[in-house]
Amino acid sequence: MLEDELVYVLSKDLEIKNLFVVENKNSLRFVQKLKSENLKPFVFSSDRLYPIVLENNRRSSGRFIKLFSDIPILRQIYDSFNRKKQQELTVVVNLLRKDLHSDIDHLQSEVYLNAREISKISDGILLFYGKCGYSSKKVQDDLQGLDCPVYFLRDNERNLVDDCISVALGGNDAYGNSKELGKGKGVFYATPMWLSDMNKENFRSTQSYKEHARYLRNPDYAFLVKINNQIYKDNTYHENASEFAKEFDMEIINTNGTMDIASNSYMETKTSISESGNC
Questions:
Q1: Domain range annotation of the chain
Q2: pTM score of the predicted model
């Protein structure tokens, strides 16, 4: 659900040396968006990608130079190489299915299993999920016990964000305050990623859609809060919002979103990894 936010932060990072994407059923649209921002990702299945990343890291580790770093005349070369290496960044993106949200226990299990796998090739992991992805104490403890540090999306108050809507609005406080827009009535929050799937014919036949539709047709749900952001590039967003509001007899309320949570969390993670001596 945070596909657009992830494309945005990656497109702004000029220090990425290699960008890898795990090829699966969820990656096609994401890769197309990356290419629209003039990024050139390498796309491989996980069984091929992980060995490639390991080999890439091994070749760039500078072991040969380090062997001679105690020789004074080569020390300056080694220090220069190490400084340059710390400024280079390899990013690996693994997108999970959006329909995992229909079962929180399954979602958390998939988050942990995939994080454990990718930790074997990583110096740090940033989870682009709200607490819906790791709300239980056990999952959080398990994640912190992986082979590399795990970082989370946080708002300006350093709180773990509740979910993707909290990220889009700018934090948990902004999320809570926005509920007042409904004037006591129920509200449904819209982002391009949410509505692009909700309006697909194949999704409408799923159990997840039927469960959403059941409570959205309740008269207590009266408003569709449409989160607008200049970064969103979905040309169908306005049309999808209108169709959705009409189907469920809702009034559209427009509000502004932000990329601050995604951007700040990404930069903090990158800085932390760099300062720890990894890259």
A1: 3-161+261-275, 171-256
A2: 0.83
